[in-house]
Amino acid sequence: MIVIILFHCFIKRAFYSSCNSIFMHTVNLNALAVLSLQESYSLSVFMYSIPAMSLSAKQIRELGICWNSVIGKLFKYNKWESDKGVLHGLGLLNISHLIMVRSVKFYKHLFYRLIVCCIMCSTLLWYTTTLVMTFCEQFSSRNV
């Protein structure tokens, strides 16, 4: 549990540093362009390792607060104002739904890899069985 908490703090720190770097270099840029950059670079800090972690609801809310603070800073919202309207208006998901989508994609990919591995193993087993049977037939015909 301590490892997840420390890693969680590291993720938040890396997220904020990437957000601040983007905000620093995009002072006079359109808000939608900055949002696209934030989604591409900063949000990927969250999404890269999330499916492999088991986060509590509190930790997911904290990550949501981080992402909402970026949206709020970008569109000049106050902390007490809701940014759900902005997210829905732009067709974006909140962080908890993004985590769910990312986890489903992760497990889907894992499941398909498992199926491919099982198919390859069964094919290899069939091939080796056929090869052994052929070898046995040839060996028994020589001894007769």
Notes on the structure:
The structure is a single chain. This protein is mainly alpha-helical. 81% of the residues lie in helices and 0% in strands. It has helices at 2-25, 31-49, 57-74, 84-89, 95-143. It is rod-shaped. 11% of the residues are buried. The model has no long low-confidence stretch (mean pLDDT 81).
Mean pLDDT: 81
Order of helices and strands: HHHHH
Treating each run of at least 4 consecutive H or I residues as one helix, how many helices?
Answer: 5
Largest sheet: none
Structural class: mainly alpha
Helical percentage:
over 70%
DSSP, total strands: 0
Structural shape: rod-shaped
Number of domains: 1
Q: Radius of gyration over alpha carbons?
A: 25 Å
Quickly list its features.
144 residues, 5 helices, mainly alpha
How do you describe this structure in short?
With 144 residues, this protein is mainly α. Helix content is 81%, strand content 0%.
Question: Can you lay out the helices and strands and say which pair or pack?
Answer:
Blueprint: H1 2-25, H2 31-49, H3 57-74, H4 84-89, H5 95-143
